[in-house]
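Thread: Newbie trying to understand structure tokens

Hi all, I'm a second-year student working on a class project, and my supervisor (Dr. K.) asked me to get a predicted structure for one chain before our next meeting. I've only ever worked with sequences, so writing a 3D structure as a token string is new to me. If someone could post the tokens and maybe explain what I'm looking at, I'd be very grateful. Here's the chain:
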Amino acid sequence: MLNIEVIHDIELKPFTVEDEDIDIDIAVKNYLLFTKIKDEVCMALSDLYLTQALDYLSKKNFDYRMVFLDEDSYSRLYNKFLEARTDREFSSMENRESEDIEDDDISLTEFLRTSSDLLSGEESAPVIKFVNSLLYQAIKKNASDIHVEAHEYKSEVRFRVDGVLTKHVDIDNKIANLIISRIKVISNLDISEKRIPQDGRTQVKIAGKSVDIRVSILPTYYGERVVMRMLMQSENIPHLTELGFSENITQGLAEIVKHSHGIILVTGPTGSGKSTTLHACLQQVTSPEKNIITIEDPVEYKADNVNQIQVNTKAGLTFASGLRSILRQDPDIIMVGEIRDKETAQIAIQAALTGHLVFSTLHTNNATASITRLIDMGIERFLIASSLLGVLAQRLVRKLCPHCKIEDFVAEEYAQDLDIPSGAIIYKASSCSHCNYTGYMGRAAIGEFFAMDENFQTLLKDNTSDHVLRQSAVQSGMLPLSSQLKDMLLLGTTSMDEIIRVGAKEA
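---
Reply by user tm_fold:
Sure, no problem. This is what the structure looks like when written as tokens:
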């Protein structure tokens, strides 16, 4: 009778046993894991894979203490082993000459093996491994997009991290074609079609988690270019309090989402986090008693308890037509990915006036400009005043790496333009290993928010100018984006280059 200790809810680290009789990769493949518990090397097993592990052990003569782990503890340790192995494989693959990649034979059957976990897959073709490497590294670096671009003499891969593209690797054009073919296969696209744009989706598993990827392929002069967008799962949607806004904005949003009807707008340029904020607001109001329907282009978050519709203009499913159909589905809450035209704006406003809570986005530089944009689209002022609950204009600002930022000075022209003291001490980006040599580490969310009140409604109905509306919002407590950016600069949180990139002059 085996005397095996059972251990629950424990965080363990992988341990590589220096024993020539033990091949760690083969042991892991047979679900036998090695770890240290209180400085003693142990063999960890799970009752889920007990048969395979004991079958493997029956052929070996290992003299180590045997322990059982509960399912969660075992899964965490197993994934750490897989990640360590994948890191080793990818680092050795990066050192391989490109000729080796060209010479290897890639069979169609290997291309089609797409359902396995990236970390545990046994695919051996270098191109398959390279694509897996891109996805793995992108996820590890928290990249939102992967770009594969063809140029005259070479191709390059770039990652968008914290809103900015950085080069990952240069590759030969012949290899790039093979990589693009592989991406087409896993996205169910036509690998023979190279003349027209194609859009697809795929899903990969890494460390036991599924990641949805939206794929866009576009023919360019020197060849096709690919953009892969990492789409988020519902468990990755942050809570309203986790978005990083000031307490005033968080409380203001929390208050207006409690309304039963009206329209709430989030504005800002592409990549400023509007979709994340909207989904955080939706999660705030989600309940079994409410029917929530969204129409998005694309569906960037897979949200639980929310019915999501993908815009398909080729099939005639636009924001406007989809919104009309949604209103016949007895919704309580509606999210429209973006108000792009007069028709969508009119239906959204009408829905807000007839007892629905509507969330949507606009592309404007600041919060009060959203009102001007709606008026320009042909929406009457009194309808805006009656339906609009509040507007949030937001930006994502990269924060300087605290390990390598260096002192800088304010140039005279910027000091005058941005109303910054010319002798102020500011900081600029440098580079170090902590920030992956970018000079920045993480992003901060800033926003200007105003909620519609009686004074604002009166001004709006009286044909007041945008300038006066903005002054009124500031007097009511709205902190402009430009002043927040200047504060971040003077506190040393970000750099002059970054606040100009984000739009300190426009905000």
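A couple of things are worth pointing out once you decode it. Residues 90 and 133 are 6 Å apart (CA to CA). Confidence is low (pLDDT under 50) at residues 96-124. Feel free to ask follow-ups in this thread.
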